[in-house]
Structures are given as C-alpha cells and as structure tokens.
Amino acid sequence: MVRFTLAVTLATAAESVFRIPNGYWIPLTVCLILRPEFAVTVHRGITRIAGTLVGVSVAFLIMRTIQPTGFLLDGMLILTAWLSYALFLTNYAVFSSVITLYILLSLSVAGGPQQIIETGTHRLLATLLGGSIALGSYLMWPTWQAVHVGEVLWEAVTAQLEYAQGLASVLEGGVEERVNECRGHARRWRLRADDLLQASLVEPHWPNDLSKGRARSLLETLNANAAALLAMQAQLQVKQPGRVGLLRRQLAELIAATEALRTELGQLPSVQAEHR
Predict the structure, then answer these.
(1) Cα end-to-end distance, the chain, whole Å
(2) What is the 3-state secondary structure (H, E, C) of the chain?
(3) Cα 50–56–60 angle (5° rounding)?
(4) Longest alpha-carbon distance in the chain
(5) Nearest to 186 by CA among 148, 233, 235
(6) Using an 8 Å Cβ cutoff, are 96 and 48 in contact?
(7) pLDDT tens digits for range 121-160
(8) How far is it, in rounded angstroms, from Cα 101 to Cα 97?
(9) Which of 71, 94, 126, 269 could disulfide-pair with 25, CB 3.0 to 4.6 Å?
C-alpha cells in the first residue's frame, strides 16, 4: 500500500514536471499496472506498454490509409467498443490495444488525423513513463513471495495430513462431520500454495533451501493426493464392506507418505524460521 501510494505520487509529480497533454494517463497507468505480486506487475506492465504501442500504430495506419468517416467510422467504433468489453478478462495485451484504438478513433469524430497522431503520441509517452515508474518502484522496493513458498507448502501438507487422518478415523468408526471441514481446509491451503508458487516462479530472488523443481514436484504430489483422498471419501460413503481392508491400507500408505513430506519441509530453514 505504501509502495502504491509513493508510485502514484511520483507519477502525479511527473505529470506536472513533463506537462504532457492528457498527462493523467501517467498515474492512471501506474494504478492499472502496479500489483502486490511481482509476476502480475511485470506481466501487466509489459503487455500494457506493448498493447498501447500496437493500438497507436494501428490507429495511425488507419487514419493515413482509410481515413474512415460516416458509417465506416461508426462501425469501427462499435466493433472496438465491443471488443474492449469482450477481451477485458481474456488477454490484457489485446485489450490494451483495442481500448487504445477505440479512444483514438473516437477522437476523430471531433478532431481529425492530426489530433489522433498528437493524442496517440501523448498516450504512448504517458504509458511508457507510467509503466517505467510502476516497474521501477517494485524493483526498488520488492516484496518477494518466493521466500514463503516452503512455509505455505508445509501448511498445505499439514492440512492434507489432517484430512487423511480424519478419513482414517471415520474408517474406524469416527464422526464424519469433521472430515468435510478438514477437506475444505486442505483445499484452501493447496490452492494458496498453487497461487503462491505460480506467482513467485519468475521472481529473481528464490530461497536456497527449496528448488523450484522440488516445489513443483511437491505441489503435484499434493494435487495427486487430494484426488486420491476424494476418491477414498466417496468409497467410504458407499460403505462397501469388502473394500474396507483395501481402503485402510491405501490410507495408511498415503498418511505415511504425507508425514514424510511434512518432515522434509519442516527441516527447511525458511519453515523453521516461521515457527520460532
């Protein structure tokens, strides 16, 4: 939050210093790009700048070749407006290109080719400056997520172990209500571990006690175990007496493997530091 505030303040100051027409695009770009995660910030920064460049270039090309007016211009505006809404959550680079093209084409209604060229140039400069401020602020004041991967994986494995132990308890005649709560808890930690790992894989700083390959492998094991535990719980609900012995052995093997994973993660310095 502090980084975001300082970056927007710097962008607003840059707007006043450089006096670029429509300079509000500088802090607006910072607001659109800067995110808590490094990977998302870099992705949005690069795609925003690239998309704006493509949109400005296409607008220049259209105005120098076709110079649309009347129904043709109206059709282009309707098409680009529709694409802006349709592609908003699909591809950020394409969305940035289309929304830039829509804005510049809409200016031709009140202005002309020269105004589009000037406004497009200003928008591109503001986007470049705002993107540089957003990316630079993160690199100067980073909050790396990778240092927490080991701890979150440990929590996810622990939650999954509790789920497996709950199923084993039901198999021996225990209460089943607690199992569904453990399953939801395990799922939340597993999804959090997945999100954290995907967000931190591109970070330049990675903890030395856990390799990226090993982290991926552990997450794949968690996902496979989750599917197996769900299948076991479904079989328990069917209550087939002939499968009790097989389920007991499968659960015992999975619990033993999960305990081994938990022990492995618990020995990592980053995990031990979190529990001191």
Answers:
(1) 28
(2) CHHHHHHHHHHHHHHHHHCCCCCCHHHHHHHHHCCCCHHHHHHHHHHHHHHHHHHHHHHHHHHHHCCCCHHHHHHHHHHHHHHHHHCCCCCHHHHHHHHHHHHHHHHHHHCCHHHHHHHHHHHHHHHHHHHHHHHHHHHHCCCCCHHHHHHHHHHHHHHHHHHHHHHHHHHCCCCCHHHHHHHHHHHHHHHHHHHHHHHHCCCCCCCCCCCHHHHHHHHHHHHHHHHHHHHHHHHHHHCCHHHHHHHHHHHHHHHHHHHHHHHHHHCCHHHHHHCC
(3) 145
(4) 81
(5) 233
(6) yes
(7) 888 899 999 999 998 988 888 888 888 889 999 999 999 9
(8) 6
(9) 126
Rounded distance between C-alpha atoms, residue 236 and residue 228, angstroms: 12
Neighbours of 134 (CB within 10 A): 29
200-239 per-position pLDDT tens digit? 888 877 888 888 889 999 999 999 999 999 888 888 777 6
Residues in CB range of 183: below 8 A, 6 or more apart: 163, 166, 229, 230, 233
Q: What is the pTM of this model?
A: 0.66
> Are the C-beta atoms of 197 and 216 separated by less than 8 Å?
yes
